Amino acid sequence: MFDRYHPPDTPWWVPYDPDYPDDCDPANRPLVQFLQSEVVGTCRVDRLGDGLAALRLVAVESGHRGLGLGAELVENAERVALELGAEELCLNAQPGVAGFYRKLGWKPGSWRGQSNCPRSIPMRKALSRKG
User: Fold this and answer.
1) Between β-strands 52-60 and 88-93, what pairing exists: parallel, antiparallel or unpaired?
2) Model pTM score
3) Residue 94 near residue 120 (C-beta atoms within 8 A)
4) CATH of range 2-126; options 3.40.630.30, 3.30.70.1050, 3.30.830.10, 3.40.50.300
5) Which range, 17-26, 47-56, 64-73, is most confident?
């Protein structure tokens, strides 16, 4: 799924590194989305400190989009971020999915550590503790 967002034939290509420090950091939480017993989505919640967390590597397999799985994945990530003490969550959205995030309450906004990819749209969402 990583290569779909960082394709080798583009100027923003980045090879996937399974040993990348953020992927191995015990402070960060990888999440997977299942449909029955099949992994169809993934993301990672990174703690940035000062009440801020970042949602990274969000992806849903193309054949499973439009079924509400992406929204469920993001909502689960928001709950995990709250459990980690975050008050706000941020992410780097690709242009084709910025509208999806807006529907879930995200707004464009800069943040420390945002991507320098020229296609990326930095977004933020304040988290609330319901109930």
Assistant:
1) parallel
2) 0.83
3) yes
4) 3.40.630.30
5) 47-56
